[in-house]
Amino acid sequence: MISYIGKRMMAVIPIVLFATLVTFALIHISPVDPAEAYLTAAHIYPTPEILEQKRHEFGLDQPMLMQYMHTLQRISRLDFGTSYLTNKPVWDEVKVRLPATVELALSSMALSIVASIPLGVLAAIHKNGWIDMLSRGVSYIGASIPQFWLGYLLIFFFSVRLDWLPVEGRGTWQHLVLPTLTLSFVLIALYTRLLRSSVLEQLQETYVQYARTRGIRERVIVLKHVLKIAIAPLITGMGMNLGKLLTGTIIVEQVFSWPGFGRYFVEAIFNRDIPVIQCYVFLAACLFIVCNLLVDLVHLYMDPRISAKGRAEQ
């Protein structure tokens, strides 16, 4: 098991390096001149002399390989430069905004898990019953409704008409309710369908029939044996969506004026704040890699045969 974990950890290194290379290439392929973008954000007219001076200051007149090596050195120190708009270190700005995104992501993930697991299991056990029909309806609506429209709909009913919850901002638990509901509704629809299909598939397996012939109660079979195997696709989906949530749910943060990482990235795009964009792309890639690694480790914990299979293939 330890060798499998070490192998997976070593595989992360080239992926992170590739992410830095892609980020570096996208910045230099872009038609936006970083020096011109900086001067524009600072409200300075970009004369040829000032542009040349800023390009030399940013190291843009050096060979590409040298620029890339300097970029790697800065990233290793979590130094992503200074924001063109605020003239503050990008990493300091990110550290202020990232907790808000983490809070929203974890609350949305927790709500989706609490709601989808019992709904998916009950829908599979009572196939074609009213619970199954309810889960199908939730899944169809969740897969069809746009998040921004759902967010505005919740604002209209719970904030404008009923005046129960605040419209925007962050501070109290009331501010967290509407964006959490907006994000988790789609996840509940997805996870419920995944778990329902997986549980139905496992209920047809031989070990379930054998357990029933032994007189084991249905509830014990489902909770102790079936759910442990059927939940594997759900864990994979959770890992992928957690990376997406942690990188900033851009649309929802814009709708509810949530001061998170995603909204910060949108503002950077509109202001051509290249250091912030570079930081976002790199951190997004790293977060997805870490989430996928965690999913692999959870699968390994639940099914130790994975490490044995990896050793057999070597």
From TrEMBL:
**Compartment(s) of residence:** Cell membrane
Which keywords describe this protein according to UniProt?
A: Cell membrane, Ion transport, Membrane, Nickel, Nickel transport, Transmembrane, Transmembrane helix, Transport
Give the main location: membrane
Under PROSITE patterns, the record lists: ABC_TM1
Residue ranges of the ABC transmembrane type-1 domain?
A: 98-299
* Superkingdom of origin organism: Bacteria
* Listed InterPro entries: BPD_transp_1_N, MetI-like, MetI-like_sf, Nickel_NikB, Opp2B
Return the CDD domains for the record.
TM_PBP2 (cd06261)
Which SUPFAM superfamilies would you find in this protein's record?
Answer: MetI-like
Among Gene3D superfamilies, the record links this protein to: MetI-like
* Membrane topology designation: Multi-pass membrane protein
What quaternary arrangement does the UniProt entry report? The complex is composed of two ATP-binding proteins (NikD and NikE), two transmembrane proteins (NikB and NikC) and a solute-binding protein (NikA).
The entry sums up its family as follows: Belongs to the binding-protein-dependent transport system permease family. OppBC subfamily.
Provide the protein name.
Nickel import system permease protein NikB
Q: Which organism is it from?
A: Paenibacillus farraposensis
